[in-house]
Write a structure and sequence with these properties.
Layout: H1 4-7, E1 13-18, E2 21-27, H2 28-33, H3 38-45, E3 58-59, H4 85-89, E4 95-98, E5 101-103, H5 108-113, E6 122-123
Antiparallel strand pairs: 1-2, 2-5, 3-6, 4-5
Length: about 120
């Protein structure tokens, strides 16, 4: 599902996929409060809140890649506000970043340190 608010009631762990590839995995609390992949941050911004106004909900600009013609490098790079040349050239491997946490992103440390650096400007 893309509705992360439903997942919190059904699971203790979550796996985030983008274009058929696992990009982040971990305990629900870690993913919600300390995301490490820009796509996860985008999904979290897209969850409506009963206490936030409609302008607080953001969409991720662009479109997902064609599943039959996947680009080289990170599949999210064309939509990622943090993409650098390495992202379009080298597919990030899914790596262990802590107890029960995995991510596939070249810039995961920056996202983890301050996930507000991931900015999607398109308000819904």
């Amino acid at each position: 599902t893309h509705d992360l608010s439903i997942i919190t009631e059904m699971a203790d762990r979550i796996a985030i996929m983008y274009a058929g590839k696992l990009v982040e995995e971990g305990p629900i609390d870690d993913i919600f409060h300390r995301p490490t992949h820009p796509y996860t941050v985008g999904l979290l911004h897209a969850v409506p809140s009963v206490i936030a106004d409609r302008e607080a909900v953001r969409s991720i600009p662009g479109t997902p890649p064609d599943g039959f013609n996947l680009p080289p490098g990170c599949r999210f790079a064309s939509r990622c506000p943090l993409a650098v040349p390495e992202c379009t050239a080298v597919d990030p491997r899914l790596m262990e970043i802590g107890p029960d946490r995995r991510v596939a992103c070249h810039r995961w440390k920056e996202v983890q340190d301050d996930h507000s650096i991931v900015s999607f400007d398109s308000a819904v």
